[in-house]
Amino acid sequence: MKESTHSCLAFCSISTLTRTLLVILVSVSVSAALQSSELVGKESSQPLTLPQAIQKAIQQDPWRNGNELRRQSLLAKSESVENLPDPRISLGFVNVPSDGFSLSQEPMTQMKIGLSQSFPRGDTRAIQKKHYQQLSEQYPFLEQDRLAKITAGVSQLWFEAFYSQRSLQLILSERNLFEQLAETVESQYASGQPQTRQDDVIRSQLELSRLSDRQTQMSEQLAVAKAKLSAWIVPESALTDFTIPEDNPAAMLKKSVPYSAQSLPDKKRAIALIANHPVVLATEQRIKAELVEVELTEQKYKPQWGVNASYAHRQDDAAGRNRADFFSIGLNLDVPLFSSANTDSEVKSQTLAAEALKTDKRLLMRQMISQLDGLRSTLEKTQQRIAIFEHSILPQLHEQAETSLTAYTNGENEFAEVMRARIAEFNGRMELINIHLQRDTALSKLIYFTLHDNTSATTGLVYE
């Protein structure tokens, strides 16, 4: 009779534990959602969407103003070099006698005024103007490159903040579950239930401590990500002036960077994209300017011309007879006979510099194509991993956790197995968030390579 009563009590206790755990699992999502919204609400005020972040970063970027000033400076130089050198005026007294310094004593004594004008060698003026114009034409490409860098960089920071916030909310959700599981286990242990041991209580407290540590780490990651993002968009404001909304990040990215195609660029298309990338075009413009500078140096082989004219006045002689004045005109030029060796070296130096820039361009294109290939591979593989996690791993982990819980409530399993199954499911969900971050980070980097071409696409992948 006592054994029957004891079995009945044990069965009733197990049933009570089962109902308690099921209530926990049903209610945990609701309480987690409430705590997550409270967390976001406490942080502050206005949500910052990805398009808003990109727009503010571009508007508040001081680099663009400096870039335009440098372009205007070169254009001003191109206008200045087009003018001729200033003419030279000379004034003097010629052939003044030293025995009395009289201006009328000797017939060759003159008061002379002269004017001379030199002309640069060959087409130096036109070539110098062309050189500065070629240099100035790189700056619009550099501005496009800057816009692509800002869009990509701000997108990466925004995604870091977004997924840090999502991870933090997942931790809060799991914390609610583990806290209620710990309370239930402590209650069962205190009531002397045979299937609950002291190490179960210790294990539940240990997992809560570990969750607290992960929550602290993730809060720090979120704060750091928001701090980096605020440096671009609100440099005068405090960190809590914005929050990250919970909208679909992929949809936001499509709004920020619209594309018309539906697939990632293949190898052939990637080469064309890189060849027309702003940073490559800016390098090409510097190569053109360097070749013009070679042409400018070659002008030193040509002579430099100059013209001069003078008028000399003579005073009347001692008898009062009028003396004729003198007028002179002349032409001068220097012949580069002995400086040709130096000019040869200068031309060679400029030519080699232009060839070095061409090598830099080829190397830059090779590196960018390699990076683009790597990003394409990352996007494809991360999307495959997301599909595996969503359709296989996470459902299996959830089923394992549910089975472990059922076995424990039926007295067929230990509490440690329940905790291990729940932790495995939690780690799987955290890993899925991390894979989403890897994918969207790669997508953000891909923007830098494709933003200049509206026929490119980085949104051909399927987002869930």
Written description of the protein model:
The protein has 464 residues and is an alpha+beta fold. It has one domain (2-450): Outer membrane efflux proteins (OEP) (Up-down Bundle), CATH 1.20.1600. It is 68% helix and 9% strand. The chain is built from 11 helices and 6 strands. The protein has helices spanning 2-43, 50-59, 63-80, 124-136, 138-190, 198-233, 249-256, 267-275, 278-298, 340-409, 415-450, and strands at residues 46-47, 88-94, 110-119, 242-243, 304-313, 326-334. Helix 5 (138-190) runs antiparallel to helix 11 (415-450). The longest helix is centred in the last third of the chain and has 70 residues, at 340-409.
Which structural class do the helices and strands define?
A: alpha+beta
Number of strands: 6
In percent, how much strand structure appears in the residues?
Answer: 5-15%
Largest sheet: 4 strands, antiparallel
Any low-confidence stretches, pLDDT <50, length ≥5?
A: 1-44, 257-262, 455-464
Radius of gyration: 41 Å
Calculate the terminal CA-CA distance, rounded to whole Å. 59 Å
- Assign an overall shape: rod-shaped
**Average pLDDT reading:** 78
Order of helices and strands: HEHHEEHHHEHHHEEHH
Total number of distinct structural domains: 1
Here the CATH topology equals Outer membrane efflux proteins (OEP)
Topology (elements, then pairings):
Elements: H1 2-43, E1 46-47, H2 50-59, H3 63-80, E2 88-94, E3 110-119, H4 124-136, H5 138-190, H6 198-233, E4 242-243, H7 249-256, H8 267-275, H9 278-298, E5 304-313, E6 326-334, H10 340-409, H11 415-450
Parallel strand pairs: 1-4
Antiparallel strand pairs: 2-3, 3-5, 5-6
Helix pairs in contact: 1-5, 2-5, 3-4, 3-5, 4-9, 5-6, 5-9, 5-11, 8-10, 9-10, 10-11
